[in-house]
């Protein structure tokens, strides 16, 4: 499968997150700061590339997701901003990373 168009990702609303959705972490809250409006909270970008994850289950505010290397994580959407990835892009990126990383699982992610 080849992608023939360019996409622009946008932040995904919590109510739009469903099992099977492909997501990526845009940024994370540095520390809990519940008194500040969402845009004023200190945020930082993850040290690794925003690789795709596939949502397995949702129980807001938690999202249980798999990465391409077969590892699972629970994401707290109060602490991360997620982008929804188009399905065909997500399938290609997720599958390609899984195949390419099968013999070097997580090497790029642990160097930070």
Give an overview of the whole structure.
This protein has 112 residues and is α+β, with helices and mostly antiparallel strands. The protein has a domain at 10-75 and 89-100. 12% of the residues lie in helices and 31% in strands. The protein contains one helix and seven strands. The protein has one helix at 87-100; strands spanning 10-11, 22-29, 43-44, 53-59, 62-66, 72-76, 80-85. Strands 1, 2, 3, 4, 5, 6 and 7 form a seven-stranded antiparallel beta sheet that branches. The chain is globular, with a radius of gyration of 14 Å. The N and C termini lie far apart (32 Å). The model has no long low-confidence stretch (mean pLDDT 82).
Which features does this protein show?
112 residues; 1 helix
Calculate Rg over CA atoms.
14 Å
Structural class: alpha+beta
Q: Can you write the helix and strand succession as a string?
A: EEEEEEEH
> How many distinct beta strands?
7
How far apart, in Å, are the first and last alpha carbons?
32 Å
Mean pLDDT over the residues = 82
Question: Which residues sit in consecutive blocks of at least 5 with pLDDT less than 50?
Answer: none
Shape: globular
| Biggest sheet layout | 7 strands, antiparallel
Roughly what fraction of the amino acids lie in strands?
25-35%
Approximate helicity band: 10-25%
Number of alpha- plus pi-helical segments:
1
How are the SSEs ordered, and which strands pair?
Layout (H helix, E strand, L loop, with lengths): L9 E2 L10 E8 L13 E2 L8 E7 L2 E5 L5 E5 L3 E6 L1 H14 L12
Antiparallel strand pairs: 1-7, 2-3, 2-4, 2-7, 4-5, 5-6
């Amino acid at each position: 499968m080849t992608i023939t168009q360019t996409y622009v990702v946008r932040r995904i609303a919590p109510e739009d997150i469903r099992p099977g959705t492909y997501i990526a972490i845009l940024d994370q809250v540095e520390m809990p700061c519940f008194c500040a409006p969402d845009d004023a909270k200190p945020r930082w970008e993850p040290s690794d590339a925003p690789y795709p994850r596939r949502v397995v289950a949702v129980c807001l505010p938690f999202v249980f997701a798999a990465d391409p290397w077969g590892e699972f994580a629970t994401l707290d959407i109060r602490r991360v901003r997620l982008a929804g990835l188009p399905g065909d892009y997500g399938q290609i990126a997720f599958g390609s990373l899984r195949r390419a990383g099968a013999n070097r699982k997580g090497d790029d992610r642990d160097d930070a």
